[in-house]
Amino acid sequence: MKMDASIIIGLIILGIVAGYLSGLVGIGGGIVMVPVLVLLFGFTQHKAQGTTLALLLFPVGILGVLNYHKTGNVDLKTTLILCVGFVLGSYLGSKTAINISQEMLRKVFAILLIAVAAKMFFQK
User: Fold this and answer.
1) What residues have CB less than 8 Å from 32, skipping those under 6 apart?
2) Sign of the C-alpha dihedral, residues 31, 87, 67, 123?
3) Contact 53, 30 (CB under 8 A)
4) Cα separation of 114 and 8, whole Å?
5) CA distances from 115 to 14, 20, 23, 66 (A)
6) Contact 14/33 with Cβ under 8 angstroms?
7) CA angle 97, 28, 88 (to 5 degrees)
8) In this predicted structure, which of 45-49, 69-73, 86-90 has the lowest mean pLDDT?
9) What are the DSSP calls for the chain, one per residue?
10) What would the pLDDT profile of 26-67 be if each residue is shown by its tens digit?
11) What is the distance between the alpha carbons of residues 91 and 85, in angstroms, rounded to a whole number?
12) How far apart are CA 9 and CA 18, in angstroms?
């Protein structure tokens, strides 16, 4: 991808919006970034997901957690227990994702977003 000024500015704006929403409501930035990278920046589904995972390592993994930890809103014991399964799950999920078609991966991602949105919308 050629990185001209408009692309760089667009990516910075996307990062700000996704980072803000991540900090505001605790979502992973991928919920915002993956669709935007695919639809507006022409990334493949695989490249959008890989790029988003690479991005989230530092800013969300460290800086966002520090703010929540300072206010006592991080349960470290639960985090460590979840981390055990998350490491294995993310490895297996990424291996699966790179071995299925773009179309199927996009549909799986869309179904997940719809299911989560519906549950949150209709939950009492």
Assistant:
1) 14, 17, 18, 21, 22
2) positive
3) yes
4) 30
5) 24, 23, 22, 30
6) yes
7) 45
8) 86-90
9) ----HHHHHHHHHHHHHHHHHHHHH---THHHHHHHHHHTT---HHHHHHHHHHHHTTIIIIIIHHHHHHTT---HHHHHHHHHHHHHHHHHHHHHHTTS-HHHHHHHHHHHHHHHHHHHHH--
10) 677 788 889 999 999 999 999 998 888 888 777 667 887 888
11) 10
12) 14
Task: Give the integer Cα–Cα distance in Å for 124 and 46.
Answer: 35
- Token readout for 84 is 């055990």
- Between CA 68 and CA 20 the distance in angstroms is 14
Separation of alpha carbons 50 and 34, rounded Å = 9
